[in-house]
Amino acid sequence: MNAETTLILLTVFVGITAISFVAQTIAILRVAKTAREMKERVDAFIPKAEKLIHTAEKTLVDSKTQIGEITTRANEILAIAQTQMTRVDELMSDASARAKVQLDRAETVLENTLTRVNDTVNSVHGTILRPIREITGVAAGVKAAVGHLLKGSPANVAQVTTDEEMFI
């Protein structure tokens, strides 16, 4: 390559470098302008943010005391509820035990009553119904005898067989 071509190439490269420096300068100026605008916005926002932070801190302090009070009250209520549940459990246990005892007593009374009723029924059967059956049997025998005597002797064998089957 000759010196003139090299000189032209170097000139072109220097020109391109100068253009890139100019572009970089423009970009940096725009970034600086945007940074200034952002700073102005942030500067305008900072007092509002400080007020908000102050209000939030005050709210947190107030909330902390209220949460403490609520927690204390909730613990008291839970303790009372636990005491009441213990009492209710004891009451239910006592009532269950008493009900079981009463059911056992009622069952015993019922068994005794049924036994007495059964004994009474057996006694009635033994003392009243047995003699009535015997009397009924004797009366049926007397009736059959009287009926037989009044009829006379049976005329045929078929009549005697029917009478015996009815008697059995």
Taking all residues together, what is the mean pLDDT?
86
Name the quaternary structure.
single chain
Tell the overall outline: elongated
Helix-strand topology string: HH
Helical amount? over 70%
Total number of helical segments?
2
Q: Please give the radius of gyration in angstroms.
A: 61 Å
- Low-pLDDT runs: none
- The tally of domains stands at 1
Extended strand count? 0
Strand content: under 5%
N-to-C span: 156 Å
- Report the biggest beta sheet as strand number plus sense, adding barrel if it closes: none
Structural class label: mainly alpha
Task: Give descriptors for this structure.
2 helices, elongated, single chain, mainly alpha, 168 residues
Describe the structure.
This protein is mainly α. The chain has helices at 3-151, 157-167. Helices cover 95% and strands 0% of the residues. The chain has one domain. The model has no long low-confidence stretch (mean pLDDT 86). The chain is elongated, with a radius of gyration of 61 Å. The protein contains 2 helices and no strands. The termini are far apart.
